Amino acid sequence: MRALVGVKRVIDYAVKVRVKGDGSGVETAGVKMSMNPFCEIAVEEAVRLKEKGILKEIIAVSIGPAQAQETIRTALAMGADRGMHVKHDDILQPLAVAKLLKAVAEKEKPDMILLGKQAIDDDCNQTGQMLASLMGWPQATFASKVDVEGSNLTVVREIDGGLETIGMKLPAVITTDLRLNEPRYATLPNIMKAKKKKIDATDPAELGVDVSSKLQTVKVVEPPTRQAGGVVGSVQELMAKLKEKSLI
Amino acid sequence: ASTLVIAEHDNSALNAITRSAVTAASKLGGDVDLLVAGNNCDKVVEEAAKISGVKRVLKASAPHLERRLAEELEALILHAQNSNKYTHIMGASSACTKSVLPRVAAKLDVNQISEVIAIESEDTFVRPIYAGNALATVKSSDAVKVMTTRATSFDKAEMNGSASVEEISSAAVGASEWKSEELSKSDRPELTAANVIVAGGRGLKSSENFQMLYKFADKLGAAVGASRAAVDAGYMPNDAQIGQTGKVVAPDLYFAIGISGFTGAIQHLAGMKDSKTIVAINKDPDAPIFQVSDIGLVDDLFNVVPTMTEEIKK
């Protein structure tokens, strides 16, 4: 079996983002970029499935500017076998991304597609579901445990208030949640090896996908900041204040 | 506008977040229909019909809809859309709506707008990006606007309406199969519905010490939550996590206890900064949490929490 894994290059999770003065977006120039943490979990899960002998090949796909190749290299260093770079310089909506991934999947014919449940930049949480719908495949979103037996997929999902287990036949789309696994760090020998792995390149035109969008960002602003309140001197003072506000 | 709202429920009771979605839908103007999809869910339908602002309740009751699997709901919603040509399809953001609405949007070849926190007009919406560190205003010229709304950003609609009920159905898809579920059982209020929340961080130092928070919370009828740091340390289960990757809450009163805000501050803040009153208790006077709290107390939580619990007894 083979898997397609989507990986997105985003502002590193530890960086405090700054909104641009002209309200057009957030500052990305000179900012540390990394693989989206949920995508790392998807790569890790695919590599584990390969280590168990379930997967034969893992193809890491990234859609983005030239630097998206670095993100693909990271996936290759973690254990993916080869890469596919869909070159595109502008920000894309999840619908366009899902259409591009579908076009790649139709060429590569994977048995499963693993994606992070959400990218930490636009926080959309849509691409996997859209892709499954466009492919006519079942989906297992927010996975915290994945089991593959033959063509049967069993997934434990994180739902509101607990966990749910669902089953389906492959091919399917899986989106990963935080608890699924702890991604490995790429070791130096593996980083060196990854440099020799192949990355193919394509673009939306070659894939025959129209990526224009009817959703426009009008402006991006800083959220209102909370004003710091005072500090009280004792528990008794705290309780008195809360009573005064009729909060307790 | 004419809007379809997807109701959130467990076949026996309506989840109150549905009422916040109805409030959001009402801001669009025009008629609001509410889809209750489930199995043996008559009680939910009864409740749903009382939500003010709902014109019609579409009831779809069938065994294949009992677990509200994404593929089944997708087919049903597309069927309702085909018959009624809504301009907007939406639901309060939940594991269920997040799973199904992007599927619906893709089939309609339109974008989905996630976690809307304000509705400026029929086509312009505000949503948080970067874990709430920026707010984006987006304008959609798609034929149908598909979106999820953040429950804590809209008040719950009143319950003095009287909607008509209409039955709809769709054939089973059978793409995936529900096997089991494991819900955390508790007599305490759910985090997203609680008026008061007591949240603990890594400062609690152990899972046993959270019992102290539970005692305090029970005095207040409060829910207990945790920062991601506390969850990652194994002190609390994942579903207690408050933050961008956990639950987003906005209670009247929020206690941040032993949550310094030094690590993962952005993540935690995104989940609780809309609380009306934030009380922070931390022994470090420089803890960043004091920059967002309304009332701060610099003291050792292991002294403060038992004293507060005692004080409430009086």
Automatic annotation (TrEMBL), chain A:
CDD domains: ETF_beta. PANTHER family: ELECTRON TRANSFER FLAVOPROTEIN BETA-SUBUNIT (PTHR21294), ELECTRON TRANSFER FLAVOPROTEIN SUBUNIT BETA (PTHR21294:SF8). Heterodimer of an alpha and a beta subunit. The electron transfer flavoprotein serves as a specific electron acceptor for several dehydrogenases, including five acyl-CoA dehydrogenases, glutaryl-CoA and sarcosine dehydrogenase. It transfers the electrons to the main mitochondrial respiratory chain via ETF-ubiquinone oxidoreductase (ETF dehydrogenase). The keyword Transport applies. Keywords: Electron transport, Mitochondrion, Transport. One of its GO terms (molecular function) is electron transfer activity. InterPro entries: ET-Flavoprotein_bsu_CS (IPR000049), ETF_a/b_N (IPR014730), ETF_b (IPR012255), ETF_beta_N (IPR033948), Rossmann-like_a/b/a_fold (IPR014729). One of its GO terms (biological process) is carboxylic acid catabolic process. It comes from Guillardia theta (strain CCMP2712) (Cryptophyte). It is found in: Mitochondrion matrix. This is Electron transfer flavoprotein subunit beta. GO terms for cellular component: mitochondrial matrix. Belongs to the ETF beta-subunit/FixA family. Residues 23-211 form the Electron transfer flavoprotein alpha/beta-subunit N-terminal domain.
